[in-house]
Amino acid sequence: xxxxxxxxxxxxxxxxxxxxxxxxxxxxxxxxxxxxxxxxxxxxxxxxxxxxxxxxxxxxxxxxxxxxxxxxxxxxxxxxxxxxxxxxxxxxxxxxxxxxxxxxxxxxxxxxxxxxxxxxxxxxxxxxxxxxxxxxxxxxxxxxxxxxxxxxxxxxxxxxxxxxxxxxxxxxxxxxx
Length: 177
Description:
With about 180 residues, the protein is an alpha+beta fold. It has 3 helices and 7 strands.
């Protein structure tokens, strides 16, 4: 399987990051600009085996489930229904590393295979950009409490590029949702 890893530092506690990513698993649309809507659909929220439905656009939906968890440290999500064109298998992993009480490094790794296989090399750069936007959205949401959308992510990315590594979005002006 090919893989892509992206990371970001978020100025909030590891517990708060875990709560948004794992315990609020069905609400990924609050911070992921690639998702128009999402909902929890099966199992106990924040537990192995729970599932969510994500609406990417009017024509595309994916179903995902948590397949592994190391409480408060990392968890794996499997895309088991739907997905991106030419993607065969997709699985993501979130790892959380506490830097200090109010700073957390989030690493996201996506493992995937494509059909045909050579498309994987072509898609890797585009997917890396998607996951960068996702992590910037997560940082912005956790640091400001604001929702992320396809409409506001470009402005948020611009703000992010103006931040130093240790800076927080909460110190900058909020973007209109």
